[in-house]
Amino acid sequence: MSDQIQFIVEKLNQEPFRKNYNLITFDSLESMQLLQLLNDVLGEIDPKHHAVDIREELPEQTAKRMLSLLGILKYKPPGSISDLSAFRQGLVTGSKPVIHPVLHWLLQRTNELKKRAYLARFLVKLEVPAEFLQDDTVADINKQYEELMEAFKNLHKECEQLKTSGLSTAEIRRDISAMEEEKDQLIKRVERLKKRVETVQNHQRMLEIARQLRLEKEREESLAQQKQEQKNQLFHAEQRLQRAQLQLKEMHHAVVDSKPESLMKKLEEEINFNSYLVTEKIPRELESKKNSAYFLQKVVAEPAMSQSDLNVLEIKINEVNAQMNQLIEKRMMKYEPIDSKFSMYRQQASIIARKKEAKAEELQAAKEEMSSTERQMLLKTNQAHELEGSEVLKGDEFKHYVNKLRSKNTFYKKKRLEIAEITAEYGILQRTEELLKQRHEALQQQLQAIEDKKGISGYSYTQEELERVSAVKSEMDEMKGRTLDNMSEMVRKLNTMVAEKKASLAPVIKELRQLRQKCQELTQECDEKKIQYDSCAAGLESNRSTLEQEVKGLLEECAQEESNYRYINCMKKNLEIQLQRAKEEMKAYVSPDPQERRKAIREQYTRMILEQENLGKKLREKQKVVRESHGPNMKQIKMWQDFEQLMECKRECFLKQQNQTAIGQVIQEGGKDRLVL
């Protein structure tokens, strides 16, 4: 409960609440203040509840409003408040056992609940009675309402997907503007090219040919892609075939070189190893992973901890470890006389069990490494077959191949020097050829002029063509003869290579037979040792498991006792503080000294009650006087208002009379002046 209150106080002190509470001030809040605080939190989640004052609202309305929102947010009361009526009553009265869990649940998932409250405004369906739905207009409106609700769901899903996709509107706008600029540039380039093409003759036919060429190129690319895919499929099929052939060969070798007893032993070993993995190793690892995941979830669910909290936890862990060591030592000292004979065997059993587990892990890792190495070897063999067309060389063959490469390297260097000399000579001959071509062209012109004069033009060209055709025919005949010679030479080389391979593999096969015999002997010896090891390890493993269970039970018991101790200690401190306050109050109340008695809380509250009662009496008397004098005072106010209106009328009449007398005097003075004139 203290962790729950601490989490609530931390969340309320942050944005957007900023209440500046501590544990004491929060715990001393009254029921109305707690309800107002809960309403503020609900208002943060749903703005409709933000501007509501609890004091101006009836308790039933407050409870109904909060219960409806909590139902929308899918809040479930804790197990201790299974009765809904009790939960409702606690919500009306502002009970701490009811309000605190609600606040803790709301503050844990504020963002999620905001989203849920927002969606509830649009997705909570209005229930229309069936008799109203018989009206066509109401039915159509209800159908439109349901369609709009479904459309809102789809739009909200799309909006969430866009938010999580990582695309921003600014990036999309930049991309659109860049694409529009590229589009404008392409349009301009197309217009310029059209203007250039329009000046060319038969441009429509050329455009059609270019379009067909583009289509054929696209078709060629698609066919090349299909060809590559088929090659890849063929390559993978060949790899699978080679793997199957290799496995078949290994199985043939295993069947030829082994007996039924050895095969049965191998199968028994594999079965024992797999059963050990399934029954012991994998369940233990799975249990440890589950425990670690449980502890990690527990750590994630707890509030964030500061460095001081971590230091306190480290100190507690060290203390608990020290206590555990002391308990183990006491237990060992207590049971030493009885278990003195078995302690050595237990220790050896635990060591052998650990070794067994380590060897099992090493064996599994070796098997995985062997399988990966076999895959790599098969891949390299396939690559070598593709590059060279022959198997990978080993031992003496590889040395012979290196010597051959060295001799070829020296031969390559000599040929390279010859190529350099030939290249220099080729430059000289090329220049000579150019000069001869120039002279030949001049002679051809002269010869053509002479043929024109004699009337036999084209004679030399026809003769050259005949000579060229005969030369090409002779070259083709020579090439056919060379091809036949090359094929016969290749067949002879292949026969010699096959004979060499057979001769080189004969000693290797003899050595392999001896090694297989040694391998069978070592395998039998290993089987005997392994049987002894398994029999010893089984007993040790059973003892180790019992010890682990005992240690686990002691750890759980220690943790339970520690939590009980801390809880009892906190309750004790609270009771001591309350007892101390009660003693001080009793001492002050019983004290004969009036000054001390005035310090008592009871006297203070009694004095405040008397003051408030006196103040209430005075206010009631004042209210009575005001009520009695209200009627006459109102009449007097009315009389004064009438008197004011009367005086205002008199003033206006007086001002009008003065204005009229002034006008009469001016008229009389004007008449006198006229008479004088």
From TrEMBL:
It is found in: Cytoplasm, Cytoskeleton, Cilium basal body. One of its GO terms (cellular component) is ciliary basal body. Keywords: Acetylation, Cell projection, Cilium, Cilium biogenesis/degradation, Coiled coil, Cytoplasm, Cytoskeleton, Differentiation, Phosphoprotein, Spermatogenesis. InterPro entries: IFT81, IFT81_CH, IFT81_N_sf. Residues 3-127 form the IFT81 calponin homology domain. GO terms for biological process: cell differentiation; cilium assembly; intraciliary transport; spermatogenesis. GO terms for molecular function: tubulin binding. Its main location: cytoplasm. Residues 138-247, 310-383, 505-585 form a coiled coil. Component of the intraflagellar transport (IFT) complex B: together with IFT74, forms a tubulin-binding module that specifically mediates transport of tubulin within the cilium. Binds tubulin via its CH (calponin-homology)-like region. Required for ciliogenesis. Required for proper regulation of SHH signaling. Plays an important role during spermatogenesis by modulating the assembly and elongation of the sperm flagella. Belongs to the IFT81 family. This is Intraflagellar transport protein 81 homolog.
